[in-house]
Amino acid sequence: MPKVLIAGGAGFIGTNLTEYLLNKGWEVFSIDNFSTGKPENIKRFMHDPNFHFEEMDICKDVPHHKFDYIINLASPASPKKYLSLPVETMMVNSVGVMNLLNLADEYKARFLLASTSEVYGDPTLHPQPETYWGNVNPVGPRSVYDEGKRFAEAITMAYHRYNGTDVRIARIFNTYGPYMDVEDGRIIPNFAYQALTGKPITIYGDGSQTRSFCYVSDMVEGLYLLLIKDNLDGEVINLGNPDERSVKEVADLICDILNVEKNYKYLPLPQDDPKRRKPDITKAKTLLGWYPKVKFEDGLRRTLKWYSEIIKNSYAR
Ligand code: UDP
Q1: What is the count of structural domains for the chain?
Q2: What is the 3-state secondary structure (H, E, C) of 248-317?
Q3: Any idea of the CA torsion for 190, 193, 197, 203, to the nearest 10 degrees?
Q4: Measured in angstroms, how far is the CA atom of residue 118 from the centroid of ligand 1?
Q5: Which of 146, 187, 255 to mutate to test the pocket of ligand 1 (most atoms within 8 A of CB)?
Q6: 32 with 75: CB under 8 angstroms?
């Protein structure tokens, strides 16, 4: 069975991907420095003989053994977290990525970089195909993440071009589902927590800005296909669900599903908050045969159920 290293294995997507690969019988080596990942996410894998975990910061060290695949999910990813960890975010996407690329090079492992739709910034082209170069403010607050990920993509392609490293880049659009930290700060955990605990829902701006939300099981499947398919060396592929919704629509839907009052508190829009975002997934459909299957309403129901358990358990403690 393949041996895979997952950096950022205790984070939201890392936890879901670990479960998916263990279910396929893969041997998973997970590392995380817990800057945003959570020890409780991976607790339930600890008894699986195919699961190995080490607390490790990829800026300082990486495990020195042979892997078939290396997946890099290590980075703060929510605006709240990367704005509170600005330098760490830039370092993990530069030095951290370089350390993993050196490891991939040394043992001829295939490397998958988790990049982001944030490389498109506040896009002037809609929906966004991979050929779009983006509209990023290089000195704005979000630049620590946007430019960090753009650097991560550039160094990944440099290893591919100059060293022949087998690399693939996933540009991940807004994803949601179980194991996204309730305090992560992103729209779905914020709104879920607020609606489930009777607090006003915080809408930034007038709520007309849009995002397109992908349920995590679809995302994990897309990442898996991008990892295992041959002849995709050096490819950059958008992964996300093109089902575009406004922020206000998301708030309305969550209140409707939970059957709670629409109690909204309007707050200022954060600086450089993208106005619209929607992936063009033609390339993923063509090269991976992948498209998202979980409807937003269904994914939201599952996610709200998960958050309600989490909140119940944390109050019970
Ligand atoms: N947002 C909001 N209220 C919140 C959290 C987020 O209105 O409590 C908005 C935010 O301004 C953005 C969208 O929801 O327009 C998605 O934000 P998120 O932080 O989830 O991810 P982003 O796509 O901006 O990285």
Answers
A1: 1
A2: HHHHHHHHHHHCCCCCEEEECCCCCCCCCCCECCHHHHHHHCCCCCCCHHHHHHHHHHHHHHHHHHHHHC
A3: 20
A4: 12
A5: 187
A6: no
Reported as a single tens digit per residue, the pLDDT across 30-87 is 999 999 999 999 999 999 999 999 999 999 999 999 999 999 999 999 999 999 999 9
CATH number of the domain bearing residue 111: 3.40.50.720
Query: Does the residue 181 lie in any domain?
Result: no
Question: Shortest CA distance to 4 belongs to which of 24, 28, 32?
Answer: 28
**Cβ contact 154:140 at 8 Å:** no
Do residues 125 and 132 lie in contact, with contact meaning Cβ atoms separated by under 8 Å?
A: yes
Q: Which domain holds residue 63?
A: 3-175+215-241+274-293
pTM of the model: 0.97
Q: Is 202 a pocket residue for ligand 1 (Cβ < 6 Å)?
A: yes
